[in-house]
Amino acid sequence: QAFFCLLLCIPWGSSCPPSCQCTERAGAKAVLCSSQHLEEIPKDIPRDVVFLKLDANSITRIPSNAFRHLSHLEEIDLSRNAIEKIDRAAFKGVAAGLRSLDLSSNRIRSIPKEALLALNAKLRLANNPWHCECALQEVLWEARLDLDSVQDITCHTAPRQEYVGKPLLQVLDAGVNFCSVRQRTMDVAMFVTMFGWFAMLIVYVVCYVRHNREDSCRHRDYLSSLPSAQPCAD
Question: What class does CATH assign to 21-184?
Answer without folding.
Answer: alpha beta
